């Protein structure tokens, strides 16, 4: 009895070559619809599934392979006498291989102006059913879902080395594939942000050399449907592959720069901003970001939301940087920066928008899931509890600093003046300690600067050291039982304070 392969693919890349190889190995091909047409046009003899089942396709193609003759041929155990007897009684031919890939549900989701009816019609039913049946029967059936496996599968068949272990690997890929497919469908239909079962799926973008430290293994996976402002969709023009820490820092830079619409440059080190500058032009914006902390930027990452030209590339080339991210490099800028062997240069669309993704943080035995911190405020959202009110220029700096402090590890303090960060205190166990670090960094620049705190002041000590250093205005959430103490301290030193009503903890 000839071996039989069932081939029905949506992605028809290289399918005729693979089918031709199977025929040369003595396989009989059965197929459906467009795949059958492509094979026969290529001169490959194939039998229509309806000729095997004796049942025509129906419901506009919704029912093709959902038939006992197909699934009994897949699910029958070859070493089970009763199964074999039933196949013989039903005149059912065993199916030894399934080559199937699914309706392009993911691709349909990404199309513009697609209707729900079109999306629903791209939910494959027969394909996953065949794949799962074949994968369940991996002891006897070879199942191929990925065109990338065609050549290796043919090679193994030709060498007679396609054993149960290899079939199990192919089956595992099938179950991962159908799990992702179902996960994307479930996500499309689910409106509840936190349903009773939360499933996510990612596609491997690359294996990383190591994780945070050389003794840790790591890989980078991408969201299969999200492309906007994603490192996975960035175009790397120069430099070696990104590392685990590179990706973490670069992502932090993207999240920060998305906050600002005007020409902005962001320098990041260890996922905290060490400098942010906003100006009328990107060159001036970078100068502000660099001057904010010319020490910490060494070995850091720079992101700019405007094209990088020769002038800016020359400045960047004078600093040791791991990565530069921009929407575009001019040819002349690239010529300058590519002289530096180890710098990574990434082009990526940078837009002012808030991400809608959920943040997942693994903990032992589970995962924490929360919506992204996308709360925005403007002047109308502020309240002014102190006697002295901020000037309009101070309000601009306060709102600038508030956007920045959102991206600094808590406890967080950011000092700013003239749309430039001048001091950053990150990740301290107490707020006054974070303020002390920011003020020490700012030195004389603290005079006339504004201060942003990611959470309220539990006591007035932070306000006092800020006032003594010359801070002119403070922005903070408010809401402490001792708010009045901080208000009184501001009034004592003649500085203004505004409340936002929201906090920005970042653990």
Give a verbal description of the structure:
This protein is an alpha/beta fold and about 500 residues long. It is about 35% helix and about 20% strand. It contains 18 helices and 20 strands. The chain has a six-stranded mixed beta sheet. A five-stranded parallel beta sheet has the order 3-2-1-4-5, sandwiched between helices. A five-stranded mixed beta sheet has the order 17-16-18-19-20, with helices on both faces. Strand 16 and strand 17 form a beta hairpin. Helix 16 (about 430-440) packs parallel to helix 17 (about 460-470) and helix 17 (about 460-470) runs parallel beside helix 18. The protein starts with a strand and ends in an 8-residue tail after the last strand. The model has no long low-confidence stretch (mean pLDDT about 90).
List the helices and strands and how they pair.
Blueprint: E1 4-9, H1 15-24, E2 28-31, H2 33-41, E3 47-48, H3 49-53, H4 68-75, H5 81-89, E4 97-101, H6 105-110, H7 116-121, H8 126-136, E5 142-144, H9 150-158, H10 164-189, E6 203-208, E7 218-222, E8 235-238, H11 244-257, E9 264-269, E10 272-278, H12 282-292, E11 300-304, H13 310-317, E12 321-326, H14 331-337, E13 344-347, E14 358-363, E15 366-371, H15 392-405, E16 413-416, E17 421-425, H16 431-442, E18 450-453, H17 461-468, E19 473-476, H18 483-493, E20 496-499
Parallel strand pairs: 1-2, 1-4, 2-3, 4-5, 11-12, 12-13, 18-19, 19-20
Antiparallel strand pairs: 6-7, 8-13, 9-10, 9-11, 14-15, 16-17, 16-18
């Amino acid at each position: 009895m000839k071996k039989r392969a069932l081939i029905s693919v949506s992605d028809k890349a290289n399918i005729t070559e693979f089918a031709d190889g199977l025929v040369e190995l003595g396989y009989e091909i059965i197929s459906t619809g467009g795949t059958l047409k492509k094979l026969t046009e290529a001169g490959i003899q194939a039998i229509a599934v309806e000729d095997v089942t004796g049942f025509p396709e129906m419901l506009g193609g919704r029912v093709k392979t959902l038939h006992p003759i197909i699934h009994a041929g897949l699910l029958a155990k070859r070493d089970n006498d009763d199964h074999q007897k039933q196949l013989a009684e039903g005149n059912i031919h065993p199916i030894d291989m399934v080559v199937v890939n699914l309706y392009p549900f993911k691709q349909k989701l990404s199309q513009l102006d697609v209707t729900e009816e079109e999306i629903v019609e791209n939910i494959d039913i027969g394909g996953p059913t065949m794949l799962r049946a074949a994968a369940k029967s991996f002891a006897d059936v070879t199942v191929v879902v990925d065109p990338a496996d065609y050549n290796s599968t043919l090679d193994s068949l030709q060498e007679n080395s396609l054993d149960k272990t290899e079939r199990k690997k192919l089956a595992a890929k099938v179950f991962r594939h159908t799990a992702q497919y179902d996960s994307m469908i479930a996500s499309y239909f689910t409106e509840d942000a936190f349903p009773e079962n939360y499933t996510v799926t990612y596609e491997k973008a690359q294996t990383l050399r190591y994780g945070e430290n050389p003794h840790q293994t790591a890989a980078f996976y991408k969201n299969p449907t999200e492309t906007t402002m994603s490192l996975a969709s960035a175009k790397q023009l120069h430099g070696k592959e990104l590392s685990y820490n590179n990706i973490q820092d670069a992502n932090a830079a993207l999240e920060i720069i998305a906050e600002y619409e005007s020409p902005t440059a962001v320098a990041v080190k260890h996922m905290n901003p060490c400098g942010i500058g906003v100006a009328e032009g990107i060159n001036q914006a970078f100068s502000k970001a660099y001057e904010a902390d010319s020490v910490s930027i060494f070995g850091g990452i720079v992101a700019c939301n405007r094209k990088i030209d020769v002038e800016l590339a020359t400045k960047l080339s004078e600093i040791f940087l791991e990565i530069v991210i921009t929407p575009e490099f001019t040819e002349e800028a690239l010529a300058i920066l590519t002289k530096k062997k180890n710098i990574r240069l990434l082009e990526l669309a940078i837009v002012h928008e808030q991400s809608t993704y959920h943040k997942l943080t693994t903990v032992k035995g589970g995962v924490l899931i929360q919506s992204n911190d996308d709360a925005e405020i403007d002047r109308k959202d502020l309240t002014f509890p102190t006697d002295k009110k901020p000037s309009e220029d101070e309000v601009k700096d306060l709102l600038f600093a508030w956007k920045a402090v959102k991206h600094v590890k808590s406890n967080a303090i950011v000092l700013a003046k003239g749309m430039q960060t001048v001091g950053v205190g990150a990740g301290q166990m107490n707020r006054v300690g974070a303020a002390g670090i920011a003020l020490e960094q700012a030195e004389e620049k603290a005079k006339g600067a504004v201060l942003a705190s990611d959470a309220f002041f539990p006591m007035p000590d932070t306000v006092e050291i800020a006032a003594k250093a010359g801070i002119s205005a403070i922005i903070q959430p408010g809401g402490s039982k001792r708010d009045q103490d901080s208000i009184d301290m501001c009034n004592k030193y003649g500085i203004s304070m505004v409340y936002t009503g929201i906090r920005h903890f970042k653990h």
